[in-house]
Amino acid sequence: RQWLEFFGNNTVYLLYRTFQPAVTQIQRSIDGGLTYGPATTAGAIGQVGGTAIDQNDGTVYVSGSTGQVCVGIPPAAGLPPVTYTCHTAASDPNGVAHLFFPVKVGADGTAYVAYSNDHAIYLVHSTDKGNTWSQPVRVSDGPDTLTSLLPALETGPAPGSVGIAWYGTHLAH
């Protein structure tokens, strides 16, 4: 699967994973997705979970099913990142990618990740471009929800505002 994210009006980042070996690839278009430049590798982060671009400075975030978020910081305004640095954003004995591991960036530059461990949905955030991540906060606290999967995440216009949706059921997985 492929993930797309815009930076401004015309710059598009395309994230995907190769089959063997399973390595992430990020390509950049400066003409709204008509053509793309060469691919850059972020590393082996498992099943890709999403991409997000900080609209303030063009920092690119990519997430994967291993709980890692790789961050590419542009060397100068208007340029794509040359390299990506990966850090563990979340870990859980039951895993963190039931089914996706989405990443989004707020208007204030805070990066967020939502994940499922098959039972609950959690949220973590980073204010230092993914170098460190907060402790997880459980957001699926319904008393009758025993299984929560497939989190979707979006940020709002106010600092710290996020929206999370997921599938949940009272049946145990």
Could you explain the architecture of this structure?
By secondary structure, this protein is an all-beta fold. It has no helices and 14 strands. A 4-stranded antiparallel sheet has the order 1-2-3-4, with no helix packed on it. Strand 5 (48-53) and strand 6 (60-64) form a beta hairpin.
Q: H/E order of the elements?
A: EEEEEEEEEEEEEE
Helical content stands at: under 10%
Number of helices: 0
Shape type: globular
Which residue ranges are poorly predicted, with pLDDT under 50 across at least 5 consecutive positions?
Answer: none
**What is the overall pLDDT average?**
92
Strand order within the widest beta sheet: 1-2-3-4
Biggest sheet features:
4 strands, antiparallel
Radius of gyration of CA atoms, rounded to a whole number: 16 Å
Indicate the proportion of strand residues.
Answer: 35-45%
Derived structural class: mainly beta
Number of strands: 14
Distance between the termini: 25 Å
